[in-house]
Structure formats: structure tokens, C-alpha cells
Amino acid sequence: MPMRGAAAVGACAALLVGGCGKTGGGPTAIAGADPGQGRRVIERVGCGACHVIPGVRWPQSRVGPSLEGFGRRALIAGRFPNTADTLALWVRDAPALSPGTGMPAIPLTEQEARDVAAYLYTLDAR
Ligand code: HEC
């Protein structure tokens, strides 16, 4: 089997939780973003210090809202449309969108922010 095929299968496996493409109901997977990488970023920077995030190993606190089922939410922080671009901006610079929010800016690259957003979109608990 050519390498390209194998890589595509691997990418699909990474998206398995999100259903490998459209999940029906929740937002779609983000092009060029890797949810598995996003989960590792979430663990590295410690989003779990403030959020309950399914699938993330971290002593999770409830300073911020639980992110359970976030892939199905229509709004971010009850105010902003839950689109990939807005979510990627929110996770690295929430105060830019919402001055005075309790969520701090987090030092992430744009790619990391998109990977994190992609992981949050796999959270589609039924
Ligand atoms: C210091 C605590 C803290 C940290 C660290 C933190 N957050 Fe938050 N987060 C919050 C708070 C507080 C809110 C609620 C903000 C609001 O409603 O204005 C929030 C809101 C959110 C929301 C919107 C939730 C909703 O119900 O709409 C998302 C998504 C989110 N955070 C993701 C993350 C991610 C991803 C990280 C790590 C990159 C992270 N947060 C790190 C405190 C934190």
C-alpha cells in the first residue's frame, strides 16, 4: 500500500473520537489541525487547572466551566459563536475577545491553538 494511503488512515484514526469528519450536530473537524496534538498541548499548558476536560490527565478543577460536550455548544462563554477561528482565538487570548474575562491569555502558537480547538471539538458526549 502506498505511504499516502497509510498516512490518511492514520489521520482518520486521530479523528476517531470526532467521527473522522463531520460529527453531525457539533462543529466539523478543523482542516490542518490535529486533535491528538491538541490534547497534548492542553496537558502541557494545564488548562485542567481551571477546567474539567474529558480525556485529559490533569487534576481538574472547576475555576472555569466544564468543557464536557463542548463540540456541541453553540456559543463560547455564552457570547461568541462557536466557530473554529473564534475558538482558536479564545483559547490563546480570551481577554482579546472578552476584556475582563476570568480566562487568562495562554501562550500558544496559532497552530497549537487550532489543535486545541480541534480537540475540544471532539468532545461530543452524548
Ligand atoms: C486560570 C484559569 C483558566 C485557565 C488556565 C484556562 N481557562 Fe478557560 N476559562 C476560564 C474561565 C474563568 C472561563 C469562563 C470565561 C467567561 O465566561 O468569560 C473560561 C472559559 C473557557 C472556554 C469557554 C467555555 C464555555 O463554557 O463557553 C473555553 C473553550 C476554554 N475556557 C478553554 C480553555 C483552554 C483550552 C485552556 C488551556 C489552553 C484554558 N481554557 C485555560 C479559566 C481558565
From TrEMBL:
Q: Where is the signal peptide?
A: none
Name the Gene Ontology molecular function terms of this record. Answer: electron transfer activity; heme binding; metal ion binding
The record places domain Cytochrome c at 33-124
Keywords of the record = Heme, Iron, Metal-binding
| Pfam families membership | Cytochrom_C
What is this protein identified as? Putative cytochrome c
